[in-house]
């Protein structure tokens, strides 16, 4: 008895218990021996009778994947406990498979006594729930813990699209010819090879691929356009070529095809092209109800009412994808691709109605859409940059683009992308300017360095090209890269002030701080997430990283050594966990409640597991806000 009591005094979280309670617990412990190595608990099968406290030996714990490989292998040794999280949060079933090593000895505490301690002593209970929350920030651990949902959801009939890499596909071999080859000869070779795509090089031997010709190219430019088939194929080729790494996922290839409006992707491994993918083939191999077939239907829509109907179907698709366990960052990309496709249809329609633009330009999206992180409560944030023109043409050029922006914006509003209350829209003259004017804007925001200028800079830094001449955006980035290398301490100070406006809603006693909305006590999910967006943007600015997506920025910062692997993973997991909760809640409001979505969440509607995970996420955010205070404001106050 005395040995057990002395042991418990130094074992967490038993060391938190009063001495008289600890003595009672020690008296009730049973000693269990495992003389031989063997599996004692199976994940999600074995119902646990209580808590194991290791005294001697070792437990090896892990998850089995679908191929019976051991994943997330960990070891519990003297003073460690196993079973607390399983008893509290997994319906008393063992969360992991457990192998007891030879000559392992444990003290066993019956679950009745364990649960009584959890009810009576909050610190004891919190030890186990906090550990679970911390573990859920590990992507691989969270993957295996994620609850299974029922099959048969129509928008994700083909799960492999989200887990399979391009390198596992059978690629189509490239067929090449030089740019001087006559058109009729290329057509003959295409027929002979039974291929719909021929890639064109700038030389016979070791030539660079400069474009491609498809059956549609021949139909539209040669047959319909009455072109001379004896001309060199370079006169009709399509460009540029778009490529993707063989390590990318299949869904990334399909989304890239939709974004770049190409039907073919070259695949590269270690800098060399190894074959190509056809969009039609990928979509044919997919199921009829996949989100990518849905995107294709948006692409084929002919008028605003049809586009509006398609956008109204997005919440159902989002809900189904999340229910099947598709990662929120992938769902974000699907939403973004749908909204980009709608915007492109409207842009092309406006140009067809107004006539060709009088200058090269870029139509860009800002804010969450610019970051490819749209939710279902979304307004428009967009802007236009056009090339500088001579004085006599300036008014004409500006008038065209303001009229163009108004047409696109009004139609977006009619479809369901509401006008931005803050006026961050290209139809607002403040957000449609020449390139030189935009450069002056950025310099002015950085020089003024006050909170309002910081907010405007933040909105416009999250900018993403979706239509026009990409070289204009490249020139802007080159300009900003140079400007950000100048002394900008005051600018970064005010950017940090903006990033620290919203604190995670966690009280001193680790409860979720709420406020009243109607009859509910809620917190704001969007504001809770904004410190992560702001934090990552701050460091991206400091290190001149022009990726717009929060996840992509985090990866670039990790690669640059700004964040450790653990820091990047914690922020990434925290951000996309909150994004998943936000998207699912908004989709349910639209589908089930038939109300407009919002960003408010009542913590009482969450499971105990979800509440614990949220509290750990809030702690992660607080820790990184402290990092900003120290690094950019030179103050802890």
Task: Kindly summarize this structure in a few lines.
The chain is α+β, with helices and mostly antiparallel strands and 637 residues long. The chain is built from 25 helices and 21 strands.
Written overview of the protein:
- This protein is an alpha+beta fold.
- The chain has 25 helices and 21 strands.
- The strands form six sheets. Strands 1-8-3-6 form a four-stranded antiparallel β-sheet. Strands 2-7-4-5 form a four-stranded antiparallel β-sheet, covered by helices on one side. A four-stranded mixed β-sheet has the order 17-16-15-18, sandwiched between helices.
- The longest helix is centred in the last third of the chain and has 29 residues, at 565-593.
- The chain is globular and about 100 Å long.
- The model is unreliable at 147-159 (pLDDT under 50).
Features:
alpha+beta; globular; four-stranded antiparallel β-sheet
Helix content: 40-55%
Strand order of the largest sheet: 1-8-3-6
Helical stretch tally: 25
How does the major sheet shape up? 4 strands, antiparallel
- The poorly predicted ranges are 147-159
By DSSP, the count of extended strands is 21
Output mean pLDDT.
Answer: 88
Amino-to-carboxy terminus distance: 51 Å
Query: Rough shape?
Result: globular
Radius of gyration: 29 Å
Which class do the helix and strand fractions yield? Answer: alpha+beta
Strand percentage, roughly?
A: 15-25%
